[in-house]
Description:
The complex is a heterodimer. Chain A has helices spanning 45-53, 75-78, 96-103, 109-118, 134-147, 164-179; strands at residues 6-16, 19-30, 34-38, 60-65, 68-69, 81-84, 152-156, 183-187, 198-201. By secondary structure, chain A is an alpha/beta fold. In chain A, strand 7, helix 6 (164-179) and strand 8 (183-187) form a beta-alpha-beta unit. In chain A, helix 3 packs parallel to helix 5. The two termini of chain A are 33 Å apart. The model of chain A has no long low-confidence stretch (mean pLDDT 85). Chain B has one domain (3-219). The two termini of chain B are 21 Å apart. The radius of gyration of chain B is 18 Å and the shape is elongated. Chain B has helices spanning 3-16, 18-38, 43-67, 71-76, 78-83, 89-118, 123-150, 158-184, 190-219. Chain A binds chain B through residues 50, 53-56, 75, 78-79, 81, 83, 85-94, 98, 101-105, 128-129, and chain B through 1-2, 4-6, 8-9, 12-13, 16-17, 72-73, 75-78, 80-81, 83-86, 216, 219-220.
Amino acid sequence: MQSSASLTISDLWIERGERDLCKGLSLSIQSGEVVRILGENGAGKSSLLKVIAGILSPLEGQILYSGEDVTLDRSLLQHDAIYLGHSAGVKSLLTVAENLHWYCPDAPSSVLYSVLTQLDLVDQVDVLVKALSVGQARRVALARLWLSKKTLWLLDEPFVSLDARGVALLEGRIQQHVLSGGLVVLSTHQELLSIASRDVALL
Amino acid sequence: MTYSSFLVSEFLVLWRRKQDVFNALLFFVIVVVLFPIGINSSPEFLAPAAAGIVWCATVLAILMAVEGMFKEDYHDGSLEQLVVSGLSLPLLILLKIVAQWLTVVLPLLLMMPLLSEMLYLPSSGFWVLTMTLLVGTPSLFFIGVIGSALTVSIKQGAMLVMLLILPFYLPVIIFSTLAVKASQAGLPYSGLLAMLLAISLLSLVISPFMTAIVVKASVN
């Protein structure tokens, strides 16, 4: 994990269909910060995260990651980022363990086991993801946050489908991550109980 | 994610979807078996028609296999994860095609001796037919995968995939059957095999990049 990563967005302009989103948005995030993107439905929260992750291209604007311009080629940022979108992003025909080996092949089995224990998934380790509940599949996706050493986390509504214990676990993990120098950008309508975050409202 | 972990996951998924692969192979066998029963079972008819029968069945089986190549990944969101993985998307797509080709075409080649005997194909024709399958089928996957990616977000996309890519399959079918017929007539066929190889190599260069562009457009 990078100890002094930063993400700078300048004069962003996203076009989705006929709509202009985030027009003129500028944002700077430093290591150890959590930024919560707020806005009504359709304000462009998911689009903003997708643009940062490199799924969408902005119409205008510049994106710098740790000082490097990644506007046209996001691969530098992607190597150091986790993006969790609306879908869990786990393969439904793989088991829980196989999914995590697919995403984090370098994670030792002992660490994997301990993470799955924390997330109450240890009994489902050999169960196909398609047989899990939506909340459990979400936990499998979130397990990557425990296993990966990437600095930038881009989380789109990460608390959706989680129970109270899952929410507390995730908040704890986000806090732990930013304390160790990570950056988190998340969109959520939920109040963050235990994390100090900077709110950015999209109009 | 690494390229090797991706390839392992692809084989695991194909193993879990073995019924789909088996259905494609079963379809191939049924088509080949029904031809002699339905049209003419005499060696005089079957020997010259064997290459055409096998290639038509192969094309249909491959169409069945490629149609849903990205569907599962699109719906569970793992396709999105490939786009943001930081790995080369064209290379990941190439690995996906390799896994699919090995799973579908290798069993098909293993069945060829038996089916060739059934179709009275002489041994010279059998080896050329096998070579055309080895050299020509990769292009069917490379072309088919573009159609599969284009229709990934459409619910009933199977027919659209067929309409989109079938015209591009015709040169492969024509060159392959001509090569087998040339060998059966004692004529040189290496030029036709070279054409098949050229089509496969050209589609190898173009397809992963085109498919990557289409996949990126589909997930956003």
